[in-house]
Amino acid sequence: MFKKAVAAVLSIALVAGITGCDKDKKARTQIANLLGDYEDSLHAIDDEALIDLTVWDEADEEYGKVKSCFMTDLYAEYIWDVFETIAESIELEYETDDIAVNGNTATLKLVYSEIDWKPVFKITHDTSADLVKDLKSCTDRKTVSGKLEFSLVGDTWKISKITNLDKVLEFLMGWPDIANPEWPPVPGDPGFPEPGNPDPEPVQTIPHLDFTLEEAISEYLILLEGNAEGIKNIEDAFSFETCGLYDITGNGIPELTFITDNGTPFTGDLYIFTYQGDGGFNFILLPTIIYQAGDGGSFIVFTTDNEIVVTYSSGGDTKYSTKTDVYSKDFMLISHYERIEYTDYDDDGHGTDWWEYYMDDNVMISESEYMSYINDYVARAEMVYTSNYDPFKGDPEYPLNDIPVAKLRYYYAMYNHMVEMQK
User: What is the H or E stretch that residue 12 is in?
Assistant: First the structure.
């Protein structure tokens, strides 16, 4: 009787084990299919397709991290074919049995493999088409180790965490050395061929520069090192990334930005530098853009098709000022605007608000005139370059919340990033 009972128990355990194995095998198969879609999204450089494979919504921190990995330079259209070539080379290296299933969750350690693009980027190519040819013929590959986590949502497996994706897609923020980069014509541009017109006008050519990307990065590193203490003081005091590297002028060479205390504790000055060659720079300076007193100051820098726009605010309970400086792409100040909100409080503490509007040399203008100017810049915004706040609903800058935001870095991350660019 005892032997029969034991046999029955063993039989039940064996069936449960087989059932469990079958369930895990099915999960691995489903996750492997999900990984195929994940790889396709990387090939297409399609952040939306990737996000659809995850459990995140816009409020999740992981959502923002992944979106930032797909950020490309504002003027990267002329090398999009280069990015596509590298992206299409991405391969996920793993074994299906490596997918560790634990009930409704799973993990996988894998390796990403792609064209070793960095050495190829450093070789001067005449055009992006020449660079694409070299990339396609490149047999060397670079690898990035990563980890994926998954969750079962209903009867569908979804990605819940991705590590090191920024290293896989690092090429999207790379600047290859191209002697004669050209802007591709796009629909609506004069150079785009209309139906029946096979001969488009010549595309716009980026002006020739007498210096290289490597030279500019070397000079930027000197700038960064010289301001290291002030930059790190700001990062310690305000706890946000201070450094940016982005081509906002459209000449194929990035601009460097950082915030430093300039020896004045708890007060930050914003600099945007553009390299001019021969060790020289042009720059935009916004002094005391943030501070540890009162409201603390707020700012947002964005670019349009033709301008660099800086909006910054400061003030207190009775007077709050928002200023907007507009610069040309060669860093010349061309316009200045200001709106001031005044508040009067009665004895019961109830406030009454009114506004005044100004432009250029303190010339008072109407609200409608002011809004028409600011709304025009905001409507043409292409990229938020750096910011320490999200504009509030009702402010003319509010639509900037829907504009792509450039990736910022802490001092050490930016320094290491630029050193890597030189290797």
Answer: helix 2-43
Compute the distance between CA of residue 115 and CA of residue 89 in angstroms, rounded to an integer.
Answer: 6
pLDDT band at 70; cut points 50, 70, 90: confident
pTM attached to this predicted model: 0.60
d(CA 375, CA 69): 29
| Residue 182's pLDDT band (cuts 50, 70, 90) | low
DSSP 205: B
Counting every residue written for the chain, the total comes to 423
32 Cβ partners below 8 Å, 6+ apart?
96, 99
Segments in 44-93 forming alpha helices (H): 47-51, 61-69, 80-88
> What interhelical angle do 213-226 and 228-238 show, nearest 10?
70
- Do 386 and 406 touch, CB atoms closer than 8 A? yes
DSSP 213-282: HHHHHHHHHHHHHHTHHHHHHHHHHH-S--EEEE--SSSSS-EEEEEE-TTSTTEEEEEEEEEEETTEEE
